[in-house]
Design a protein that fits this description.
With 355 residues, the chain is α+β, with helices and mostly antiparallel strands. The strands form two sheets. A five-stranded mixed beta sheet has the order 3-4-5-7-6, with helices on one face. A two-stranded antiparallel ribbon has the order 1-2. Helix 4 packs antiparallel against helix 5 and helix 7 runs parallel beside helix 8.
Length: 355
């Protein structure tokens, strides 16, 4: 059988294969696009050579020519594939690292060093530039989040003072007036006055509880352990859930922002256990672990509730807020939960070693 290369026209080539190749170049990866572009260049070179020499070439009469031509094209494609894969592999690895970058995980972005021997100078520059950009973004996010949360704490403290100093005093005045009126009121009004005083006392207690939740005075006055113990005792007093608190280590000297972050994370985790998990038991563990590079504060809040799914966590259980607070002190929050298996909230905050 004789293989004859018919006269080649550029229009026929475009109609037969150029359109699918162009679509592949538009939709494929960068490596695929470069390979296809090189293949088109080789095809164009072969076609130009044939047009410049002979329009008709009988390959059966010159099998050596067909073999050499095919071998040259195959070798060119193989060299292109090997060389381009070698040059594009570091770039693809960098793209993967960019896609995995997560500002909510401090120190977890682009930690793997680039390969100075295999990676090109451009890839190293891209790697360094992206790492510097992430560091700036992380620092800026930490600064703005710190300012926002600090303003939030200041506003909470102001509202708590107003509730305690003004509203609480007003309720105290109401109780004193009721007490004075009850001594002169007719006997048939004594029952109504007693109920009114009981409601006023209940309102005062709820007001004090709300003020303590807004600004933990025990944290300022007695320290982290006493404040967490107060939270657990408050849950016990409500009688909704059985709570246990355990602490291990010395927490006498801690930065104020670390204490506040640990307290708020514990408060949010226990609130989720009471309001959402339908748990019967909650355990709160606080430990200070010694290390050569510095101590680590670990908080674990666990419950035996029904747990939650990823969609439920995204719907508003306060988990992003916990992570945002932990980031302010260089900490990390891990949450383990599955339906009907309970929830574990783990907070780790590293402390700098004393100079």
């Amino acid at each position: 059988m004789a293989w004859v290369l018919a006269p080649i026209r550029l229009g026929d080539l475009l109609a037969a294969g150029a359109v699918p190749i162009i679509l592949l170049m538009r939709r494929g990866s960068l490596l695929t696009q470069v390979l296809v572009a090189n293949l088109l260049i080789m095809i164009a070179a072969v076609v130009a050579t044939l047009l410049a020499t002979k329009a008709n070439v009988n390959l059966s009469s010159k099998p050596q020519t067909a073999f050499v031509l095919g071998l040259a094209v195959a070798l060119s494609i193989a060299v292109n594939v090997v060389m381009l894969q070698r040059r594009f592999r570091p770039l693809e690895r960098l793209v993967d690292e960019m896609e995995r970058a997560d500002l909510t995980r401090p120190g977890g972005n682009l930690l793997a060093p680039v390969n100075g021997g295999a990676d090109s100078e451009e890839v190293r520059r891209l790697h360094d530039a992206f790492r510097v950009m992430l560091e700036r973004l992380e620092a800026e996010r930490r600064r703005t989040s710190s300012a926002a949360l600090r303003a939030q704490e200041q506003e909470r403290a102001r509202v708590a003072r107003d509730l305690h100093d003004e509203v609480n005093q007003a309720l105290t005045g109401v109780l004193l007036r009721l007490e004075a009126v009850s001594t002169k009121a007719p006997i048939e009004l004594s029952h109504e006055l007693a109920e009114t005083k009981a409601l006023a006392n209940q309102a005062m207690q709820e007001l004090l509880t709300l003020a303590r939740a807004l600004r933990p005075t025990a944290l300022d006055d007695h320290g982290l352990v006493a404040a967490l113990g107060g939270l657990v005792d408050e849950i016990e007093r409500r009688g909704q859930i059985h709570a246990v608190f355990q602490s291990e280590g010395d927490f006498g000297v801690l930065p104020a922002d670390v204490q506040l972050v640990v307290y708020r994370v514990a408060q949010e985790a226990m609130s989720n256990a009471v309001r959402h998990a339908d748990a019967a038991n909650v355990t709160v563990e606080l430990r200070r672990e010694r290390g050569g590079a510095g101590d680590t504060i670990r908080l674990i809040v666990g419950d035996d509730g029904h747990g939650f799914t990823f969609d439920q966590a995204s719907a508003g259980l306060g988990l992003p807020g916990m992570r945002e607070r932990a980031l302010l002190v260089g900490g990390d929050v891990q949450v383990e939960s599955r339906p009907d298996l309970g929830t574990r909230v783990r907070l780790s905050v590293p402390l700098e070693a004393p100079g």
